[in-house]
């Protein structure tokens, strides 16, 4: 989804898994442009050529899962792809997301943009064949690509441990922002992850049909005050935001807060970052207990997490200021709170620490959509993970010969990495396959077979450069 972000006030984009994108293509559309604003809440139904705008007043205020179910029930189609906003998007919370099933187009406030248009959701179904220039060749290339991913060790690790498993090595490597960035490691990741893996993880899950990695996590809290139904969403960024960011080692509270974010429809990364910011303001007396209904915002208080998620999502009490994101909230609160607002261009920082390596620091400083670790590049993967993504032939120095804190030449390396790693974003392919055995040469071959163009890796890098700039 591409839009002007209410957080950064600039171009932004956000993406998620599920079959929504492929179904839109099967309906015959590469993109849908939404202009203007409806007087009343509506949702759009796209069924091949038929497009209908339906009244949606009865959907307002409903949590995401209920809204999606109501739309499917109304359309009498339990399988139709639906992307919708939650109550937070309706209230123009600036960190609101658009959800497709349990996957979030999470960053930069796309949900607030949909809410500003009174657009509750879009349902799409398509029955067309997608035309392919060289179908047999494409089939062969995809078969090879899937085999390469299935045989790749990194991909196998993602399948077994998901992104959440990265907590442990990242904590050790100083790539785990802790206590609103007071530190870049905590030393508690192993304990937290073990508890998650052994007691809360139900199974892994693919976010769209056919992914050979299936890194998604399905989790559950069976009982207790943080009881949470079986759901998808306990990923690395989300759980880090509700543990290390806020010094909370109660994994059940973190899972519950993540689940609530998905139901209200707010970005888990920004939500955790905003709560960490609020806790620091509380510590310094900028936010006072008497002003927040006696809520205890001490570091690590697990009970504060679900309540603050609710207050932010519903714009209630202190949540109304926090719903603006840390940059604007700190400008409103003043009293030096700007020092505690960790963001780039207005986008809250994710769960990777720029102190772990210079490539990530440069990425945070230059990324188009603000302080983003993955669009276009996970800089720490080069510096700490020693991934070269098969870009050596395009001039990228071997990461094993470069120290993570080296500065000389790092800018040029990041440029090559940015141009290369934005390619999956442009093609709308999951970036994790570039960790799991695929590279831009594979994508150039597939794109050529798909479109009939003759394109190679060099040409793709040029496209990447144009898009990045
Ligand atoms: S590897 Fe990518 S496409 Fe597959 S489940 Fe994970 S996020 Fe989705």
UniProtKB/TrEMBL annotation:
Aldehyde ferredoxin oxidoreductase N-terminal domain span: 1-128
Pfam families hit by this protein: AFOR_C, AFOR_N
Alphabetical list of InterPro entries matching this protein: Ald_Fedxn_OxRdtase_dom2, Ald_Fedxn_OxRdtase_dom3, Ald_Fedxn_OxRdtase_N, Ald_Fedxn_OxRdtase_N_sf, OxRdtase_Ald_Fedxn_C, Tungsten_al_ferr_oxy-like_C, W-dependent_AOR
SMART domains, alphabetized: AFOR_N
Keywords, sorted A to Z: 4Fe-4S, Iron, Iron-sulfur, Metal-binding, Oxidoreductase
SUPFAM superfamilies: Aldehyde ferredoxin oxidoreductase, C-terminal domains (SSF48310), Aldehyde ferredoxin oxidoreductase, N-terminal domain (SSF56228)
Cofactors demanded by this protein: tungstopterin; [4Fe-4S] cluster
Similarity remark: Belongs to the AOR/FOR family.
Protein name in the entry: Aldehyde ferredoxin oxidoreductase N-terminal domain-containing protein
Organism: marine sediment metagenome
Lineage: unclassified sequences, metagenomes, ecological metagenomes
């Amino acid at each position: 989804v591409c839009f002007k972000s209410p957080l950064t006030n600039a171009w932004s984009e956000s993406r998620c898994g599920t079959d929504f994108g492929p179904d839109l293509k099967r309906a015959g559309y590469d993109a849908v442009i939404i202009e203007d604003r409806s007087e009343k809440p509506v949702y759009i139904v796209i069924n091949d050529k038929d497009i209908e705008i339906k009244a949606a007043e009865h959907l307002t205020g409903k949590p995401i899962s209920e809204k999606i179910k109501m739309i499917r029930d109304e359309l009498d189609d339990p399988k139709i792809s639906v992307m919708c906003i939650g109550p937070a998007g309706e209230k123009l919370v600036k960190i609101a997301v658009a959800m497709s099933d349990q996957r979030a187009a999470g960053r930069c406030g796309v949900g607030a943009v949909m809410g500003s248009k009174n657009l509750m959701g879009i349902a799409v179904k398509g029955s067309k064949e997608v035309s392919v220039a060289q179908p047999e060749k494409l089939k062969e290339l995809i078969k090879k690509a899937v085999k390469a991913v299935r045989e790749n060790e990194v991909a196998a690790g993602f399948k077994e441990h998901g992104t959440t498993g990265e907590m442990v090595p990242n904590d050790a490597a100083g790539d785990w922002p802790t206590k609103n960035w007071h530190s870049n490691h905590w030393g508690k990741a192993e304990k937290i992850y073990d508890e998650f893996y052994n007691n809360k993880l139900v199974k892994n899950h693919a976010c769209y049909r056919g992914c050979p990695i299936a890194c998604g996590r399905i989790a559950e809290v069976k009982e207790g005050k943080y009881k949470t139904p079986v759901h998808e969403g306990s990923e690395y960024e989300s759980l880090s935001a509700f543990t290390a960011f806020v010094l909370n080692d109660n994994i059940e509270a973190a899972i519950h807060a993540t689940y609530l974010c998905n139901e209200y429809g707010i970005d888990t990364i920004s939500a955790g970052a905003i709560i960490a910011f609020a806790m620091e303001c509380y510590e310094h007396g900028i936010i006072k207990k008497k002003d927040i209904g006696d809520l205890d915002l001490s570091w690590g208080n697990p009970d504060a997490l679900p309540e603050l998620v609710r207050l932010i999502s519903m714009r209630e009490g202190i949540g109304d200021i926090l719903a603006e994101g840390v940059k604007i909230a700190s400008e409103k609160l003043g009293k030096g709170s700007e020092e505690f607002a960790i963001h780039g261009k207005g986008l809250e920082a994710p769960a990777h620490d720029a102190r772990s390596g210079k490539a990530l620091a440069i990425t945070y400083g230059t990324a188009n959509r603000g302080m983003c670790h993955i669009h276009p590049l996970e800089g720490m993967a080069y510096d700490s993970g020693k991934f070269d993504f098969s870009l050596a032939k395009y001039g990228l120095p071997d990461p094993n010969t470069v120290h993570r804190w080296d500065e000389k030449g790092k800018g040029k390396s990041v440029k090559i990495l940015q141009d290369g790693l934005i390619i999956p974003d442009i093609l709308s392919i999951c970036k994790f396959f570039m960790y799991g055995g695929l590279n831009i040469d594979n994508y150039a071959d597939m794109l050529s077979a798909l479109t009939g163009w003759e394109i190679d890796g060099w040409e793709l890098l040029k496209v990447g450069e144009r898009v990045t700039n």
